[in-house]
Amino acid sequence: LSAREDEFVGVLEPGAWRHHGLGCLQRELTPTLRVHVWAPELFRFSDDPHRPVHDHRFDLVSFVAAGEIVDVAYRVEQLYNHDSIDRLDRARYTRAWHVKHAKVQTGIDVELIGPVWVTEAERRILPAGTVYGIKRGRFHATRIERPVCVTLVSRSRFGDEPARILGREMAWGGIVRDRDEDLYVEILSRAVGAIDDARRGWFLSEG
Known about the structure:
single chain; 2 helices
């Protein structure tokens, strides 16, 4: 947050936020810089365990400003003989899809790639003050186990290939259209409090 913490906290007010069903409110600061506010109540994919798994068409570096993120990396292998799936491994089976327009994300904006196996590869617990990166094309999911988390996300090295998401069936990409403005105000207020708590922690650690 450097010397401009007050300006950053000022961003965490009701405004031009996009609600993504992966569990966050997103706000664009510049074409390559975003603020994400994460909360369990914002998650919308509880029926499909693989639906939160996705990749990006860019590299990202994220600073955890408050709260705690759990980043889970996955190994995803495409299946070429659908008929050979072992019934005992069906919990690992899902399908991969290309997302043509990530910010629109209606049913017509996804395209089936095919069946895949999914295996958890790495789990990282990332507390406030942590900087972490995710490479373009790496499958991962963000898990939120605290009331709120705030991250500042910088994107770079954009690719031409579309992003990919997982899920058995895909009629909806992820942007929530049935908005709950009262919920967003409550979560953003929670985020401001978490930022204040994090700043006090940094002050005490420096003292």
